[in-house]
Design goal:
heterodimer; A: 999 residues; mainly alpha; Serine Threonine Protein Phosphatase 5, Tetratricopeptide repeat; two-stranded antiparallel ribbon; disordered N terminus; B: 6 helices; disordered C terminus
């Protein structure tokens, strides 16, 4: 071993230190200078070369870095006397990793370990390499070698972790677990065990094999003392007993935990499960795929006789009563909620105890109803009640709310809670319009009355009555849904904007505004509110669903690009770097975290949103460059002609997709990105409570990714087909395109139609009939754009058929013109969903079709623009196909022109007039506008001494007209961006028209 | 307290969602991971009755100095769940683990001068005292109180001390050490950029 004290890679430390310092302080030029002089003294030192490579890499010269690295590697391999220390290797490793060549780094370490087989340091480096590659088998083998060499417990545990990972991730046989168990047993027999985490691994290993009794024995033996926190130990014991179906012993353990910590809700549920000998809870824990897993677990009772049930319920009641007595003065919610849980179980068993259940909920209200968490506490209990009981409960709350003796904050809290319960139960959707309106007005008054309470609060503290504005907003949106009177939405915007002016940090306001702005087409403003949420890091995965879909369907490409890039960069970086952190857990001997963390990485890697965003990022590039076939071809080349995305599409069926989005923060009217109730009509009771929407999404999301990832390849193939089609049609009667390309396109089209739930021939029939008016385009539903895409590529596959061209032209005309007609002179606010569809048609199918025409005409033109045109155009006779192309260009041109005209008409509408119209909708004497009226008159009369200077300032500076203008400006911006796209398409088509006059 | 339990890596998703709803923090994801992978015993979450994470505490052991001590990096409770004693319970759990698992002698933390609510919690409820004032600790120029609380410490479980001993000596793997340096930088970045 060459590394000696004071020597770094064979070079004196004092010579190397300044170089590292320069690198650390990012003075790369200086570092390079120092290194050059070092290299002149040690020209053959792999370490010096590794440093050079590192500097190159940091300077952004990856090619140079790789060359130098490979030189260093060669020296290491060639020269037997060469210095092969961990410092050199780890420096090389860093560079190789940054250059995406993990394999080369691993190779170096493997070579070094072969040369010095008993060097623990090098082996650790090699183990680390395998961790980075997620090569669990090789990790295991290396760790075992280290264990044999050094006999240390941690190396054995590294091996055991690697085995567990093989079983969990690679689905290797569970026999491996037996091997791991054997290794541990042997070690314990000779050396015992010294770390709590090691014990946890041992227990989990036994648990994985369902050897619960063995695990219990270990826990209660000497090793159990490794766990120093008593409650932790008891929790494990309880779980093991339950899984071993030793329910009575488990019940005792859980009782003990509850006595130690009477508010431990999870423990209480586990206690009940054991009491009722119900194992569904444990199954539930194996299947967690939500960011906030609901603990509303199904209860199984069928195996219990009524007598058994009764006796167990009564012992649970006894325990709960005792807990309540013990914690009388501590204001804990748990023991009281437990009482409701018991009533719920009785109710589910069929005890017809609904009045007791309601009574217990009411008791809980009287104790905790003023707290902001009341509604979410009781949500799961309300769900089991039938609708009329829910309504009865709301009535009970109203009756029992304390409006006399209680303090202002209690009254405010209780009122807010009652409204939240009304929302939760759906009760609010059954009220007559007038009642909802009156209620909203009442809440607005309450909000104003209570503002003085928040006078002295720190700006970051939650304000009293903060939630009232969200509740008012929810009512106003509902009123809009039921009446279609835009004024309610305008009012909702004003209410929330005012709320934000007063308290800038309230995320609920921002999210609600984001969705209202999105709905009325003020997307730039929606995006601004989204950005104000300060979404970054992992939140891009859990929160960006609020805005992503609207942006994808918008003409705001620059913002969309940034949104996608930020998200993908976070995910890519994390996936790339997470292995480094895994090793941290190994080093700190936190073995259970190693496993969790690797599974967590997998969870992110399988994110549905990540997959979809990667496809969308490619599609965005294609959309942005579609007006120039040369640019488009460059994009396609970078996308490897779409081949990889087709592979993704093929794999999608068998992939596991994970849903990490936090849907609970979405407003009621759009519970997931694909749903927006406001787009449909209001029907009585059509409101559904927030369910686990992700389950229904999986199939749709998969199919959508499958479909979209075929597009780049289809664009590519269509261009190929078109390139030769026109020429051939002019020369012979060719079918267009070479056979292989055509066949591939056909098979992709078949795949594509499958994802639309149709066969190829049915799909053709469908679009043909729609083009002829024999069917309405409503039959296409929400997949309209996808169907048009199909039509475009189907035509590209059969360019020689004039009829197909005609079908396609008619489809574009019909779908676009119908929409323009139906939008007529409507305000943007009420027809934005139509605009969204138009944006998609113009930027996808119509763009692809224009590309195909570009490819056709290019082939008919003289090769290369440098040659003069005149040469041949006249000797090419006109063919039926060139006529079809001309017709198509003509048709597209006038269709796009219609869209432009509509947009221009909107844009030319003076902004001031629009603002004025917006504001006048709010000035009515009855119906909508009353809530705002309340708030405005409060603003007019409020005094600084009453509400404090900060709130006073915000009230006075807030302006209704400003908010209206911002909204209008944002809508206008969307229209202008769209117009720009249309104009660019139109110019392109005009140019093509010109070119075709020569054919 | 709902259920105060150790955080799992999966909890990170919901923990960060708390940030949306409390004050946003400027920690990189790596920094959270660094904590949970290094001192998983010190991370606690408060899980509410419906399974939602409504608060968390992020803490670590300081190993550079001679005295072994813990440091509270971050404490968050949803606005809807304040004034229920959750912060106290989270802090108590983390402090107990520092003491029992790592034998910490004291625990330290930083708090904004202007954050009265937090300051009161630390001094009155939890018994912290001002040790020092760090001028312009936060990015916006605000000072921080450097606060401390003594723990009983010293009754370290022998197994745990074994683990701790190991931390001092690092893993002996060069790149692994480099990582630690990097994450420490991340922490400094936080100190200067957090609100």
């Amino acid at each position: 071993m060459a590394s000696k004290f004071g020597l770094a890679g064979g070079i004196p430390e004092r010579r190397v230190r300044p170089i590292w310092d320069a690198i650390d302080s990012r003075q790369f030029k200086n570092a390079l200078k120092l290194l050059t002089s070092l290299l002149s003294k040690y020209p053959k030192s792999p370490y010096a070369l590794a440093l050079k490579a590192l500097i190159h890499e940091r300077m952004g010269k990856p090619d140079e870095a790789l060359t130098v690295c490979l030189d260093a590697k060669e020296l290491l391999y060639k020269d037997d006397s060469s210095l092969m220390d961990d410092l050199t290797l780890s420096t090389l490793q860093i560079v190789f990793q940054r250059l995406d060549h993990l394999d080369l780094a691993t190779g170096c370490y493997a070579h070094a370990c072969g040369r010095f087989p008993n060097n623990l340091e090098l082996m650790m480096g090699l183990f680390n390499c395998y961790v980075r590659e997620y090569s669990f088998v090789k990790q295991q083998l290396t760790a075992i070698k280290m264990y044999k060499l050094a006999g240390e417990e941690r190396f054995l545990l590294w091996a055991v972790c690697s085995i567990q990972l093989q079983v969990l991730c690679d689905k290797s046989g569970e026999k491996l677990l037996l091997l791991a168990e054997g290794l541990l047993k042997k070690h314990i027999a000779s050396h015992s065990m010294h770390e709590p985490e090691a014990l946890m691994v041992y227990i989990s290993l036994l648990e994985q094999q369902s050897k619960y009794k063995d695990a219990l024995e270990v826990l209660s033996g000497n090793l159990g003392s490794l766990l120093v926190i008593e409650v932790d130990k008891l929790r494990i014991q309880g779980r093991l007993l339950a899984r071993a179906r030793d329910y009575s012993a488990a019940v005792d353990v859980y009782k003990k935990i509850l006595e130690l910590s009477p508010d431990d809700w999870e423990c209480f549920l586990q206690y009940l499960s054991c009491l009722f000998e119900d194992d569904s809870m444990w199954k539930f824990f194996d299947d967690i795929d939500q960011i906030h897993p609901t603990k509303n677990i199904e209860c199984k009772f069928s195996h219990l006789t009524e007598e058994m049930f009764d006796s167990r319920i009564s012992s649970a009641s006894e325990l709960v009563q005792k807990l309540q007595r013990d914690t009388e003065n501590s204001n804990l919610r748990g023991p009281h909620l437990a009482e409701i849980e018991i009533e719920k179980r009785k109710f589910l068993y069929g005890k017809k105890n609904d009045s007791e259940l309601l009574k217990s909920l009411l008791q809980y209200f009287l104790k905790f109803g003023h707290l902001a968490c009341y509604a979410s506490d009781v949500e799961a209990f309300l769900q089991v009640l039938p609708p009329h009981k829910k309504a009865e409960f709301v009535g009970m709350l109203v009756e029992n709310a304390d409006s006399v003796s209680a303090s202002a904050t209690t009254v405010l809290g209780q009122t807010t809670t009652i409204l939240k319960v009304q929302e939760l139960t759906g009760n609010i959707f059954e009220l007559p319009l007038g009642e909802i309106e009156a209620s909203a007005v009442k809440l607005a008054k309450l909000y104003c009355q209570n503002l003085p309470l928040s006078k002295d609060l720190d700006p970051q503290e939650s304000m009293f009555g903060e939630e009232l504005l969200s509740l008012i907003n929810n009512m106003l949106v509902q009123l809009y849904w039921r009446t279609r009177d835009f004024c309610y939405l305008a009012e909702a915007i004003m209410v929330l904007e005012l709320g934000l002016a007063i308290r800038g940090h309230v995320w609920q306001y921002k999210i609600l505004l984001l969705h209202i702005y999105s709905y009325i087409g003020a997307l730039p403003l929606a995006f601004e509110r989204y950005k104000a949420l300060d979404v970054k890091n992992i939140l891009t995965e859990t929160v960006s669903h609020h805005i992503l879909r609207q942006m994808l369907e918008s003409p705001m490409w620059v913002d969309l690009y940034n949104l996608l890039q930020d998200y993908l960069k976070f995910m890519d970086d994390h996936l790339k770097e997470s292995a480094d952190l895994t090793f941290l857990a190994y080093r700190h001997r936190n073995y259970s975290k190693v496993i969790e963390f690797v599974l967590f990485k997998q969870r992110l890697q399988q994110s549905n949103q990540y997959e979809a965003a990667r496809v969308e990022a490619s599609l965005l590039q294609l959309k942005q460059n579609a007006d120039s076939i040369e640019e488009e071809e460059r994009v396609l080349e970078n996308l490897k002609s779409g081949v990889q995305l087709v592979e993704l599409s093929n794999e999608m069926g068998s992939r596991t997709l994970r849903f990490n989005e936090d849907m609970q923060t979405r407003p009621w009217w759009t519970p997931c990105p694909e749903k927006n109730y406001l787009l449909g009509s209001f029907e009585d009771f059509s409101y559904c409570p927030k369910e686990n929407v992700n389950k229904d999404r999986e199939e749709n999301v998969k199919r959508s990714i499958q479909r979209k990832s075929l597009l780049p390849r289809m664009v590519y193939l269509s261009i190929q087909c078109s390139a030769t089609a026109l020429k051939e049609s002019l020369e012979t009667k060719g079918s267009g395109g070479d056979l292989k390309t055509c066949e591939e396109l056909k098979s992709l089209l078949e795949e594509y139609t499958k994802t639309l739930g149709s066969s190829f021939s049915d799909a053709v029939e469908m679009i043909t009939e729609i083009s002829q008016g024999a069917r309405t385009f409503e039959t296409l539903g929400s997949d309209l754009v996808d169907w048009l895409n199909f039509a475009v590529f189907w035509n590209a596959w059969s360019l020689s058929s004039q009829e197909h061209w005609h079908v396609l032209n008619m489809l574009f005309e019909r779908l676009i013109l119908d929409r323009i007609k139906s939008m007529g002179s409507s305000e943007m606010s009420s027809c934005y969903s139509d605009v969204q569809v138009l944006v998609q048609i113009i930027t996808e199918p119509l763009a692809w079709h224009s590309l195909i025409i570009q490819a056709c005409t290019r082939s008919s033109l003289p090769s290369g623009k440098k040659k003069k045109k005149a040469q041949h155009s006249d000797h090419l006779p006109s063919s039926p196909m060139s006529q079809a192309i001309k017709d198509s260009i003509h048709s597209l041109c006038s269709t796009v022109q219609e869209v432009s005209n509509w947009l221009l008409n909107k844009i030319n509408n003076p902004e001031d007039d629009q603002v004025e119209r917006f504001l006048t909708t709010l000035k009515r004497n009855e119906g909508p506008g009353q809530v705002l009226g309340v708030l405005e008159s409060f603003i007019a009369t409020s005094e600084e001494s009453e509400v404090g200077s900060r709130i006073f300032e915000s009230l006075k500076t807030w302006s209704k007209a400003d908010s209206a203008r911002k909204t209008v400006t944002a809508q206008q911006r969307v229209l202008r961006e769209f117009l720009q796209i249309c104009e660019s398409k139109r110019k392109l088509l005009e140019k093509l028209k010109q070119q075709m006059t020569h054919v | 307290m709902v259920c105060i339990r150790r955080a799992t890596v999966d909890d990170l998703l919901a923990m960060q969602a708390c940030n949306l709803m409390c004050l946003p923090e400027n920690y990189q994801m790596k920094y959270y991971l660094y904590h949970i992978l290094s001192w998983p015993q010190l991370l606690y979450v408060a899980e509410d009755y419906n399974g939602r994470i409504v608060g968390y505490v992020l803490a670590k052991m300081e190993e550079e100095s001679n005295e072994c001590h813990g440091h509270i990096t971050s404490l968050a409770v949803l606005r809807t769940h304040r004034k229920l004693g959750l912060a106290t319970k989270l802090m108590t759990a983390a402090q107990a683990a520092m003491e029992q698992v790592y034998g910490a002698e004291y625990v330290s933390l930083h708090v904004r001068r202007s954050n009265r609510a937090a300051f009161n919690l630390y001094t009155e409820t939890l018994g912290y005292q001002i040790n020092d004032v760090e001028a312009k600790y936060y990015a916006d120029g605000e000072d921080a109180y450097d606060m401390r609380k003594n723990l009983k410490g010293k009754q370290i479980h022998h197994h745990a001390s074994h683990g701790h001993h190991h931390h001092h000596h690092g893993g002996g793997c060069c790149s692994g050490d480099a990582k630690v340096v990097e994450t420490t930088q991340a922490e400094d970045a936080k100190a200067t950029s957090s609100k």
